[in-house]
C-alpha cells in the first residue's frame, strides 16, 4: 500500500533500525573494549614491579615477601610441572577414551558415557580441591607414594619425603579436571575425519584397532594437538583446586612429592595479605604473566583448530 | 602367516579393551568424586545448615545460609549484566558483522574463555574494588559476567544461525524493520538454544571461587546490598576446607554437595531444554 | 487495481567480485503475470531479489544498473527499502511462515501497528480468503503455523504477502517444493491474483510458465557464469515461434 500513513510508518522503522544497529554494534564494541581493558589494567597493576625487577623477574628464584625480593621462577616451575603431569596423564587417557567413544563404543553406550565425561567438566574447582585434599592426598601419602618410591625410588623425581600434598597430587587433580576437555575435543576431531579413510584401511584387511591407530589418529593429529594445547592452557590457569593440594611452598625441588607453588595459587593466597604496593604489584605481574601465557596458548590452539576444521570443510 | 594374524588380532583386542578402559575410567572418576561428596556431605545437610549463619571460630554448628543467598545475588546480577551484552553481540556476529568484525569478536571470545578466572578477578579488582576501597558483590558479579560472556555470545550466535535464512528474509521482504525481524521473528525462534546457553553460563560461574577471594571477599553476616562484601557458598567451602576444624570440614563437604547438586541440575535442565523444544 | 509499472535498465548483480547477472533490460505490464525462465544458475532468482532489495541483505552483494518503479529508481539515495518492500511483496521457494507466530499473527504481522484489532481481523480474513485458505484455517487461527501442510503453508505465505496490499508480487518458484494438487491450486490462485497485482514468477517448470503467464523472459548463462536475458515476449509467441535459437532449444528440451 502506498499512502502517507505507510510512508511515515516506514520512515519510523528506518529510524528504529538506525538505533538498533547502533545498540548492536555498541555491544560488540563494549565487548572488545572490555577485553582490551583487561590486558591494560593488569599491565598497569604490574607496572611498579616490572620497572623494579625487569626481565630478571622471570628467572629469579626467590619469592620472599619479607625482604620484598620477588622472583617468579619457582612459581613458573610449579605451574609448568604440574600442568605437564596433567597433560601427560589426561592426554593418554583422554585420547584413547575419545577413540573408544567415537570408533568402538556401540551407540547405546557412547552417548551416555560421553555425557557423563562431559559432566566432569561441570564439577566446580573447589569440589575437586576438597576431594584432592581429603581423599587423594592421604592416598598418595599412605599408598601410591610409598609404592612409587619402593619401585622407582632410584629416580630423583620419586625421592624425598612424601607429604601427600605436592606437585604429583596437583598434577593428578589437574589431569581429572582437563580430561573432559581433551576427550570432548579429540572426539569431535576424530568424528570429523572422513569415513573414506577408514573404509579404505578396512578394505585392505586392517582391523578396527589398526585402522584407528595407524590411519584415523594420525589423520586427526593436528586437531588433537590443538585439544592438548587448549587443555594445557586450562591446567595452567587453574587456581583453587591447585591451591588446596600443592603445598604452597615457593621452592624449586626435584621430587614430584615435594610441595610447590603455582602462579595462580600465590595470587589466591597472598593478594589480600599483600602489605605493600610493590608486593601487590608483583602479584599483579604474576597475574599478567598468566594472562599473557594463557592468551597466547589459547590463541595458538584456536588458530590450529580453525585450520584443521577449515581443511575438513573445504575437502 | 597364521601366527602373524593371531598376534595382530590379539593386539587389536587388547588395544580396543584398553581404550574402553580409559573411557570407563574417565566416567568412573566422576562417579567416585560424586559418590564421595554425597556420602561425606549428606549427613551434615540439615535445616540449621541451610538456614543459619556461620558461628564464630571454634564453636560448632551454624550454617551457610548467607552464602547461599549471597551466591544467588551475585550470580543473578552477573546474569543480568552478561545476558543483554552477550545476546546482542551474538546478534552482531551472526547477522551483521562483515567478515573481520565477526571473526575478530569470535576470536576474542575464544581467547577470553581460556583466561584464568583469577586474572579476571584481578581485573574486577582494579575496576571496582580499588577505586572504592572496599570489596563488593558487584565486583564479583562483574568478574562472573566476563566469565559468562564468551559462552553466551557463542551459543547465541549458533542459535541465531540455526534459524533458516528464508525466515529472516521473509520477515524483511514483508517490509519489517531489521529491528522487528530480528527481535520478534528470528530471536524467538532461537530462544530454546539461547536459554540453554544462559543456563550453561550460569552453571559455569556457580562453582567459581578464585575471583571471589578479592572481590566479594566473603562475610560472616547477612548481606543483601551488592555494594558490600558478601558471603558466597563456594568461598565458604574453600575457607572451611583449608581450615583446621573438623566441624568446618564437615560443613565443607555438605556445601560441596549443595554446589554440585545446583550445577548438575542446571546442566541437565539446559540439555533437556534443547532436546524437545528447539533446533536439533 | 494497480497501475504501477516496474522496469529494469541494464541491471546487473554480483556477490562480492563474483558476477551472476548482467545487462538486463525489461519492463513488466501492470496486471500481467510474467514468468522468468531458464536453466538453474542463470540469475533468475537473483534478479527477483533485486526488485525488492532483498539481494543486498547478503553481505557483499551488489547491484549495478537500475530498477525503476513508476519511473523512479528504487536504489536512489532517498529511497527507504522498508517502504519499498511494503509495495513489492515476495513469496519464497520454501514456505517460510514465522515459526513462533500463530496463523493469524503470521498474516497480520506485516500490517502497521496503528491498525485497530477489528480492522486487522478483517484484513486477515480477506487475505486468507483470497489465498483460498480461509475455510481450512478459520477455526484454528490461533494455532502455530507449523500445523499446516506444505501447500497450506505456502498459501499462508501468499496471504501474508497480499495482506500488506503490495502493488507487485514476486514469486520465487513458489510451487517447486509442493505436490501436484497444491501446485495446481496455487496456479489458479495466481491467475486470480493477477487481476489485482502485477506478478513476476521465477519458474523452472516450462509447463507452468505456459499455463499461468502472459509474458515470458528467457535467461541463459553466457558461459562465464553470468546470466543474461536472451528473449522477452508474450508467452504464446515464445512457445510457438521463439525468436532466438537458444530459446527454441530450451523449449524443445534440447537442453536442461
Report on this model:
The complex is a heterotrimer of chains A (315), B (280) and C (256). With 315 residues, chain A is mostly helical. Chain A is built from eleven helices and two strands, in the order αββαααααααααα. Chain A starts with a helix and ends with a helix. The model of chain A has no long low-confidence stretch (mean pLDDT 89). In chain B, helix 8 packs antiparallel against helix 10. Chain B contains ten helices and no strands. Helices cover 34% and strands 26% of the residues of chain C. Chain C has helices at 44-51, 81-87, 103-108, 117-130, 134-137, 150-163, 180-193, 206-212, 235-240, 245-251, and strands spanning 6-15, 18-28, 33-37, 61-69, 72-73, 88-91, 168-172, 198-202, 215-221, 227-234. In chain C, helix 4 packs across helix 6. Chain B binds chain C through residues 98-99, 164, 166-167, 169-177, 184-185, 188-189, 191, and chain C through 52, 54, 57, 59-60, 82-86, 89-90, 92-94, 96, 98-101, 109-110, 157, 160-161, 164.
Write a concise keyword list for the protein shown above:
heterotrimer, A: 315 residues, mainly alpha, two-stranded antiparallel sheet, 11 helices, 1% strand, flat, C: 256 residues, alpha/beta, six-stranded mixed β-sheet, four-stranded antiparallel β-sheet, 10 helices, 26% strand, globular
